[in-house]
Specification:
Strand order of the largest sheet: 12-14-13-15-16-17
GO biological process, one term: DNA replication, synthesis of primer
InterPro entries: DNA_primase_core_N_sf, DNA_primase_DnaB-bd, DNA_primase_DnaG, DNA_primase_Znf_CHC2, DnaG_bac, DNAG_N, DnaG_primase, TOPRIM_DnaG_bac
Helix content: 40-55%
Distance between the termini: 68 Å
Number of strands: 17
GO cellular component, one term: cytoplasm
Oligomer: single chain
CATH class of the largest domain: Mainly Alpha
Strand content: 5-15%
Shape: flat
Pfam families: DnaB_bind, DNAG_N, Toprim_4, Zn_ribbon_DnaG
Number of domains: 5
Cofactor: Zn(2+)
């Protein structure tokens, strides 16, 4: 049975990890407010950032989809791993040795760790083999593509010897079993034991965003090799080709910094781009560019509308390249960026272009990019004979749906005019075709919606929402009372240094009108012993019902109107003062009510005491208001 990690170790590891660094490897984060970072949510598609990270409190929260938690939960969701695996991954990151109460690590994590260890050892073995005599063909291939020894070392390029079990035999001497090598995708079982998956090929290690080797890409070198030109690691516990981008480990920092991604078609193209100075280049690994790849890229891009990010595709001019370009165009709306196409002179890809014309030519190719919409429109037009009226009208009709899909209200008319010029037709004629295409697309969308959402389905959805029946309904923040209660909670959770314990007790005693807000307020009161400590947020969370955890994260992640720490504390003190004034007003109303009662009116001593209490309340109010 897998051992349980000691609770003290779990907390210790979390305290040593900066959640912003962990999240930052997957999401491009920018400063938001004091102590808060913001980026595009990796858990749902969005154009405007609603994903917040609070490094000091050690949690994240998305105001768009409600996802949130600590560094462990983030890794669990992003890497599809268990809680134990997340703890072990972060412990390895900070160099902390975990203690297992029952001994032994989790089975899955142990297996994943062994795969990564085997991959790392294999990468070193392949790299060392590039210098043997047999690898001359591989070295010649690299030289023919313009890559010297230092370039090969930079990207860890290696060579898999022709023999059946060179790698397997080597890794067995390091303590790896055949079963482990098979699970890692490095070997294949046979009647005689196992044989290497990659033989007589040039090898590229494929790394994840953290730089760990998760798989390999291998290129054929010899005519007698009956396999495909490129062979990749099969899917394993750590390698999933549909969600892997070659070069992402080298490119991620510059992608986040420059907000530009260059998508090329192969390993050598990535190498050529990086060596030429295009350090944001990545490539898919033996599969078409898909939704998972888009999500990876979007996590690194911001949604700054004033200076939008750019995704630049490079495609071969052949039929396969054209098909890939149109597929990219179909998905262009999914990017949190503007999309472009860069085509090399004479149809050269980045690797051949660099080899023939040098680094500057690669940079010029990327700089000469054209919008993907323009590329797609011209692809449609190229199929028609524009020397005839029939051809020009046919070209306009074929390209009109592409223009109709442009959502930018200023871009669509501009491309409509461009299309009219390219096909040599009147602008109003082409505009009519574009409008007709847009109207047809809307009608098709309505038909699809009606077909996919039958009336009974809609009833089920409505019932599901209305029957959710949580104990705490969502507060109406349009109501000024409810909104102010939320402001007070934001200050109590985020700025504990802006109030004293006795002030908190006074606010708790007064209470809130909204049940959900009041429950959080009570949890804050139950955590009073942690006031001023690093455990403040965690203590509140532990005292709160599970169904309110998301609301607590929302409260803790909300940006506050302050530019620095001093302004933040002043803001907090102001909100607390208003809350205390409200509490005093409630106390005053209660005392006045008591004073009017007959039994009190007949008791001079009690009446006098109430009068004294009213005077004290008024003095407190004036002090709070600075009168």
């Amino acid at each position: 049975m897998a051992g349980k990690i000691r609770a003290r170790d779990i907390e210790e590891v979390k305290s040593r990890v900066n959640i912003a660094d962990v999240v930052g490897e997957y999401v491009s984060l920018k400063n938001s407010s004091v102590g808060s970072l913001k980026g595009l949510c990796p858990f749902h598609d969005e154009k405007s950032p609603s994903f917040n990270v609070r490094p000091m409190q050690g949690f994240y929260h998305c105001f768009g989809c409600g996802e949130g938690g600590d560094a462990y939960k983030f890794l669990q969701q992003m890497d599809s791993i268990s809680f134990t695996e997340a703890v072990e991954k972060l412990a390895a990151r900070v160099g902390y040795e975990l203690t297992y109460e029952e001994g032994g690590a989790s089975v899955d994590q142990g297996q994943k760790s062994r795969i990564l260890e085997a991959n790392n050892a294999a990468a070193k073995f392949y790299e060392s083999q590039l210098m043997i005599d047999e690898a001359t063909t591989g070295r010649d291939f690299l030289k023919s593509r313009g890559f010297d020894k230092s370039a090969a070392e930079k990207f860890g390029v290696g060579y898999a010897p022709k023999g059946w079990s060179n790698l397997t035999d080597h890794l067995k001497t390091l303590g790896f079993s055949i079963d482990e090598l098979v699970v890692a995708g490095l070997a294949t079982k046979s009647d005689r034991g196992a044989y290497d998956k990659f033989r007589g090929r040039l090898i590229w290690p494929i790394r994840d965003t953290t730089g760990q080797v998760i798989g390999f890409g291998a290129r054929k070198l010899y005519e007698d090799d009956q396999g495909p030109k490129y062979l990749n690691t099969s899917d394993t516990l750590v390698y999933h080709k549909s969600s892997v981008l070659y070069g992402i480990d080298l490119a991620k920092k510059d992608i986040s910094k420059r907000q530009v991604v260059v998508v090329v078609e192969g390993y050598t193209d990535v190498m050529a781009c990086h060596l030429a100075g295009v350090t944001t280049a990545v490539a898919t690994c033996g599969t078409a560019f898909g939704d998972e790849h888009i999500r990876i890229i979007n996590r690194l891009l911001s949604a700054d509308k004033e200076s939008p990010a750019q995704v630049i595709f490079t495609f071969d001019p052949d039929a396969a390249g054209q098909k890939a370009a149109m597929r990219a165009y179909a998905d262009s709306h999914k990017f949190s960026a503007q999309t472009f196409v860069a085509v090399g002179p004479e149809g050269l890809d980045p690797c051949d272009l660099r080899s023939e014309k040098g680094d500057a030519a690669v940079l010029e190719m990327i700089e000469a990019k054209k919008p993907l919409f323009e590329f797609a429109i011209k692809q449609k037009i190229s199929k028609f004979d524009l020397s005839t009226i029939e051809g020009r009208v046919g070209a306009a009709r074929a390209a009109a749906p592409v223009v109709a899909q442009i959502l930018d209200p200023s871009m669509r008319p501009a491309y409509t005019r461009e299309l009219a010029g390219w096909v040599n037709l009147e602008g109003n004629e082409v505009a009519a075709l574009v409008d007709a295409a847009a109207k047809s697309a809307k009608q098709d969308a309505v038909k699809d919606l009606r077909r996919d959402s039958a009336p009974e389905d809609l009833v089920d959805l409505m019932t599901k929402d209305s029957d959710a029946g949580d104990r705490f309904s969502q507060p109406n923040l349009a109501d000024p009372i409810s909104r102010f209660e939320r402001q007070v909670l934001e200050v109590l959770v985020q700025i504990p240094e802006s109030f004293q314990a006795d002030q908190l007790i006074r606010i708790i005693r007064d209470g809130f009108s909204t049940p959900a807000h009041n429950a959080i307020l009570e949890a804050i009161g139950n955590s009073l012993s942690s006031l001023g400590s690093d455990e403040w947020m965690n203590s509140i969370a532990r005292s709160l019902e599970p169904e309110l955890q998301s609301m607590l994260r929302s409260v803790a992640a909300q940006s506050l109107p302050a530019k620095n720490k001093e302004e933040l504390i002043r803001y907090g003190q102001g909100v607390i003062a208003r809350a205390l004034i409200n509490a005093l007003a409630h106390d005053k109303a209660n005392l006045l009510s008591m004073l009017r009662r007959a039994d009190v009116a007949d008791d001079p001593q009690q009446s006098a005491q109430i009068q004294q209490d009213l005077v004290k309340l008024e003095a407190e109010r004036r002090k709070l208001q600075g009168i």
